[in-house]
Write a structure and sequence with these properties.
binds 5'-deoxyadenosine; 14 helices; 6-stranded parallel β-sheet; about 10% strand; alpha/beta; 3-stranded parallel β-sheet; about 350 residues; binds iron/sulfur cluster; TIM Barrel
Amino acid sequence: MSISDHIEKLLLAAEIGKPLSRDEIIELLKMPGEYSLDLFATADRVRINDVGNDIFLRGIIEFSNFCERNCLYCGLRKANEKPDRYRMTYEEILATARQIKATGITTVVLQSGEDSHYSVEHICRLVEIIKQDTGLVVTLSIGERSPEDYRAFGQAGANRYLLKHETASPELYQYLRPGCRLDNRISCLKTIKGLGFETGTGNMVGLPGQTYEILADDLLLMKILDADMLGISPFIAHPDTPLAGIENDDIELTLRVIAIARLLTRNTNIPATTALATLHPQGRLQALQAGANVVMPDFTPQQYRNHYDIYPGRADAGSPLEIIAELEKDFQMIGRAIGYSVGNRPTKPNPGILH
Ligand code: 5AD
Ligand code: SF4
């Protein structure tokens, strides 16, 4: 069988739902560039069938850039003295959530570094205030906490939780996140999922030391955890971190990981991440045509936004309404539109022809 026949067969099997093995995933990650478009088109068909044509928006508020960790890749790492550190007040956070609501978006993501300034009571109060006032679906993305904290966040009304596993290699994880362990991260994710949160995990693509085998393990971990949301972004080196200067302009590999994630997990919500849009002007639209179905625009007020400096050159500037208008135009170019429902992961497989 020629290589093209072989890949065609593999994609066909994946499209009708045959689980991909680790070796097959590695094959798809490594195959020659001319087959990428077939992979993306296959993932796009599964995306239409399993989660539909709408693009769901999640409004992000980066409410604190304090962080106690020292992740080698991240500009917010504690050892970096450059960023002006801020914590938004409750009033500012609530005002921003109201702006998100006013655009018609139904979900807010509250994101921060790992900042123990915020007690469990603090976060619960914040969630309660936002839920009461806006009725938005609330997603937390505030790092590793105890099972008791996660339970309390859920009781306060938080609906979703994002905690990217970052890399499925225990060694690489420990190197990139000094003092942290992958098994703790996975245990947090299992707790979060067990508590009934819509659970998000994900990775970075293009990390130093990362191999195709590790990327395949990332994808299998997303599947095994039965995560509902998958954030897959390219690594972008930050000049004020130990990984400064490590080039990664390969958005192609990130798009492949997104496409394979769609084939493996079928009905999950997969954002076209801001990091992709930052690396390439068409990165976001390409991801939306390779399996992604979510965009997470940043609504952090202008005076703070530049200080949430995870990686350089982050895309998306302007007022909430400007950002939405811009996205709407972009989506139209690829024949898609914003979906204004809450966009939960569908609970049942779509009874389409592919099942
Ligand atoms: N490039 C891309 N993504 C990054 N993140 C942190 N640093 C970088 C970087 N240099 C991502 C991590 C983390 C999220 C908050 O930001 O995946 O989960
Ligand atoms: Fe902190 Fe998260 Fe950045 Fe690590 S990736 S330094 S935990 S903000």
